Amino acid sequence: MLVDRPQPLGLDALSRYEALLSVSRAIAHHTSVAELLRAISDQLHLVVPFDYLMLILHEATTDEMRLVVLEPSDTPFAPFVPMLLSDWGPARSVWETQRTSVVPMLTEALLGTALDFLRGHGARVTCWLPLTTAHRRVGVLSFGSRDADQYGADAVAFMEQVAAHVAIAVDNAINFDDAQRLQRELRDERDRLRLLLEMNNLLVSRLEYPDLLQTLSESLQRVVRHDSASVALVDRESGQLRLRALTYNDARGITEPHSLLSLDGSPAGVVFESGVARVFRKSDLDQFGHTGAPTLLSADPRSVCCVPLVTRRGRVGTLNVASLDPDAFPPEEVKLLQQISSQLAIAVENALAYQEVTGIKDQLAEEKQYLEAEIRLEHDFSEIIGDSPALKRVLQAIETVAPTDATVLLRGETGTGKELLARAIHNLSPRRERTFVRLSVAALPVSLIESELFGYEKGAFTGAATAKIGRLELANRGTLFLDEVGDIPPEVQPKLLRALQEREFERLGSTRTQRVDVRVIAATNRDLEQMIVDGLFRQDLYYRLNVFPIQVPALRDRPEDIPPLVHHFLDRFARPLKRRITTVPPATMGALQHAFWPGNIRELENVVERAVILSSGPELKVPLADLQPASPRSAAGPSAATGQLRNAERELILGALRKSRGLIGGPKGAAADLGLKRTTLQSKMRKLGITRPSF
Question: Which domain holds residue 250?
Fold first, then answer.
């Protein structure tokens, strides 16, 4: 009921606003809605006369108004009573129009529920004010008074100022409560996600049930309070569930009961049969008697939650947690247990198969290791050896074009490693998981090139007893490497051009058009431009192949790469021959770097292999007579490279003569040390002007 309260004294404007400022500071001090509501009533009495005070807050998600009765404190209305906005009479119009409303309480008028309540408690007039901030509408503040003349225009204007301050304080308090709630939810979600991550890490690393369950129970305890946990797995022989591991959160620790649970006489069996998680309370557990719940978990559980363990192959068992709390396992904890059970089910299935597949797994691991070694030996892209600027430019171009599907034309002399570069392009492309198909045009007779490239049907020509897939079809969704593309005969070039442009072709002897998705990499050491002039190569095919040309440098154009290449080949050939060749004489390396190398890397590889065979000591002996010192096209006198090669050869021979103390022939002579015949060494000495006093 309403009680007499002292009304605020008549204050001048300055004093009134000073009092309002004091009230604003006081209510702003409270951060939560509960604290603010306790303070509002007492503080507002200092500036506004009222016998009744009511706060109506708007709930945006449900479009409801929540009633909070601040005075009188003994009102029969419960605080935070939700009601639809349409049922709130004056509050609704004030909320929608955002204008203050003063409502006289006429004794004979028919009023709504809220106003009838106020009039029944002696209120003669009410004032309804919108609570609005710069960000949103908060609600409505209602004052009631037994004095019908209490809320004049001047008082209402001041009360609107009061309502503005209250709105800010209420909005801040609501925001604070929302922030606290969200923080709690985020903390709970963080704990759940952390637990799921821990469970995942746990389950992928443990395969023994007792150890697995104990760790799971310890991690689970932080977010799902329980007293014991167990795993029951289906026993295919008996058709029942077998309790495989049981853990207690006390001194009993973990046990392995291996007892059977009937499918219709235990909580775990019921859940396994239905496939639906369920919480069993004390009354439910009593129905199973002494062979169900007590055997399942603990001596006298008050609540048991059982969750089915389901994999893609079906149900394999149940996860069971028990608690002495009769109200344990609310819905959110059951949901978390279901998430954990999905991971646990996979781990259980893995553990069941672990012992069976251990032997097969080891065998497969050995086979996998062998196959990987074979692949590395055949396609080891680390063999692209060198650090010269010329090679770096090529590798940068490969890195640029590899992720695309553009056709690449590799141009360079024979033996420069064009196939290795083509494989590198394929390996760096999105097609790396597909097939890399190589067709060496120069290695095939002209009559077979078309059939090898496009394939043929049975009976397409004499000897075609069966159909055969061509290289183009075999490389579908992969990469086709056409080596020595300049050797493709003119009669095959139009068909290849169509395959490149339209991505379609027909096998020999077939009228059915086949479409392919192939990335083409071509290579040649021929002058295609001159071949076009000579009428040997189609110009339109050249433009289709020359989308992204890469010029592969000759070995003589990157001499700084020769030392690492020499050591690479030396290691490759010395190991199987069990030769311990540890050094390459500087003069020998200099001679190798200044040679012409018309066969490029392939020729260098052959020279090093031959030298390894000829070398019996720790030094590599290269037959320098086999090296070509200068380009055969050099018609003038000795070039700078030739002079350097002669000097290197002279120093090498002088070193051998000093080592043999001037002995030329014989097993310990300089000729044997250099891998030369005695007469050949003597001839070289005459050409180089080497006489006995020089050594």
Answer: 209-354
